[in-house]
Amino acid sequence: MRLAALVRPLILVAAATAVSAAQPPAGFTALFNGKDLSGWRGGDTFDHRELLAMSPEARAAKIADWTKSLTELKDGKPHWRAEGGVLVNDGQGRYATTEQDYGDFELLLDYKLEPGADSGVYLRGVPQVQIWDYTMPDPKGHGYAKGSGGLWNNGPMGAPGRDPLVRTDKPIGQWNSLRVVMVGSRVSVWLNQKLVVDHQILENYYDRGNKKLKPDERRPVPPKGPIELQTHGGGTQWRNIFLRKIGGEEANKILASKGGQGFKPIFNGKDLSGWTGATDAVEVKDGVIMWKEKKGGVPYWNKELKDFQARVMFKLPKAGNNGLAIRYPGAPNTGDVAYIGMCELQILDDNYEQNKPAKIEPQQAHGSAYGMVAAARGYQRPIGEWNFQEVTVKGSTLKVELNGSVILDTDLKNATINPKVLKHEQTGRTRLSGYFGFAGHNDPVQFKEISIKEL
User: Fold this and answer.
1) Final residue before a domain boundary, out of 254, 278, 307
2) Average pLDDT score, the chain
């Protein structure tokens, strides 16, 4: 489906948010009931992973402390209150935070600012879609005049998504309409029906500044987390706060519709024309390459590649195991790609240990450069659903984006071999060209919509 077809009805429902807070658009749920703070708790700029890692008692105490500040009185009124169908904040207190966590979603809300207000919307507990008074003096160069809607915590000025594409704020004292679509770590933002952020990665604020982490140890935005409305010293008002969960099939269509220029299909959906190697290990059925049980080997596309991007959709059975062959030498050198290719990028059930059961090393998890560099875990869709993955290979570097989140971004020339995984010398990681294919391990893994873009 074309992106325009996906977006058009969503714009229409966004325009409908001004009609009634009591009646969310079809498919949406009202996060604010217009009457009280039911469904909301207190929050802060706090790594949601750390909150989930606490004991239940410590987590409850932390949340209770945050929540208490929502109703603390100032001039006889609480910092947060419902008033005439509007959620009013005086600029003080902790952040109004949803009790529920969300994965992929579309969020609609209206907001109104007092002069000098500086606020924002945290996505999965991560800062933030910026909201502020664009007329404020700016001696420190924060970029107020660029307007609201950007992902302001995305690194320094000029970082992708940090600044809005266009300033479209209404004058202070008027209502603004905000729409956010989040798939994986990728965020698109419309402010007053104009696109201001186009499918950009929201950086994980908590890992980016952590000097204890090496660059390839930094993890994406959590797969789930709360929505937070920030307080930052200026009065804000909020209304018509609606959210719609986005399922895996819709998320894959959104991801496939973006950034696809220059990609060419290498699988025709009918047969394995253009492929060679262990093609007897797979069969083609209903537009899908289906791995035969108890079959191994490396079927590969018969064109040697240097730098490239690959897009592929895959579906795993429980404990399913396969891999992407990266710069595989090909015939007559048809040994184990994990040793003789640049690497095998692991395709593996994220819950492998529970479903096998068996212990694996971090460098064996899905998306990892097998035996060398571990990928972030927890970003796969449930077993039985299709996953969308994009791989970028440049020189000695690899980047893996799974379902919209970058789970691996590394340079193999700096990699350390894990001898528990790779039992003998890995001779291929310095390869600068080779073939792209699949590394089967006897499990009925499925692939479709496979395309390549040469760089």
Assistant:
1) 254
2) 93
Summarised one tens digit per residue, pLDDT across range 364-413 is 999 999 999 999 999 999 999 999 999 999 999 999 999 999 999 999 99
Is the Cβ–Cβ distance between 143 and 131 less than 8 Å? no
Split into its structural domains, the chain has a count of 2
CB 258, CB 3: distance < 8 Å: yes
CA distance 403 to 386: 10
Cβ–Cβ under 8 Å, residues 71 and 96: no
pLDDT bucket at 14, cuts 50 / 70 / 90:
very low
User: pTM of the predicted model, to two decimals?
Assistant: 0.93
Residues 88 and 157 in one domain: yes
Q: Are residues 227 and 292 in the same domain?
A: no
CATH number, domain of 420, equals 2.60.120.560
- 196 vs 157, more confident: 196
Integer Cα distance of 179 and 35 in angstroms: 23
Name the helix (H) or strand (E) containing 245: strand 236-245
Over 60: is that where the pLDDT of 18 sits? no
Domain of residue 161, residue span: 3-254
Tell me: the pLDDT tens digits for 413-447? 989 999 999 999 999 999 999 999 999 888 999 99
Answer yes or no: are the C-beta atoms of 155 and 204 closer than 8 Å.
no
Q: Is the pLDDT of residue 105 over 90?
A: yes
Distances (CA, A) of 12 to 5, 108, 196, 325, 361: 12, 12, 17, 44, 48
For CA atoms 30, 33, 37, 38, give the dihedral sign.
Answer: negative
Residues 225 and 341 in one domain: no
Distances (CA, A) of 310 to 25, 42, 267, 346: 37, 42, 12, 14
Which of 415, 386, 397, 141 is closest to 250 using CA atoms?
386
**How confident is residue 22, by pLDDT bands cut at 50, 70 and 90?**
low
Query: SS3 for 57?
Result: helix
Q: Residue 298's closest CA among 266, 265, 268, 322? A: 322
Between CA 71 and CA 31 the distance in angstroms is 18
Q: Do 181 and 208 touch, CB atoms closer than 8 A?
A: no
- The answer to whether residues 355 and 235 belong to one domain is no
